[in-house]
Design a protein that fits this description.
The protein has three helices and four strands, in the order ααββαββ. It is α+β, with helices and mostly antiparallel strands. Strand 1 and strand 2 form a beta hairpin.
Length: 75
């Protein structure tokens, strides 16, 4: 009775060959492209952070910047 309700499984196909491992060496063109991309990212990051005056704790000003008023600096 077991063979009627449990058909035999077909044999599994052989496993595929593993993919070829890429080399760790980068070409000079690839290194130059990566260096340019990283420099561009650093420039953009610096430009954006210099315009942000607030942080997680609120406005972050120096003591001198807080003293400025519409009429001028208070001493």
């Amino acid at each position: 009775m077991g063979s009627i309700f449990k058909p035999k499984m077909p044999p599994l196909p052989p496993p595929a060959a593993p993919p070829e491992v890429p080399s760790d060496e980068l070409s000079p063109e690839e290194k130059e492209r990566i260096a340019k991309e990283q420099a561009r990212i650093r420039r953009n990051r610096k430009g954006k952070s210099s315009t942000i005056l607030t942080g997680p704790l609120g406005i972050q000003e120096d003591k001198e910047d807080q003293l400025n008023t519409l009429l001028g600096k208070e001493d």
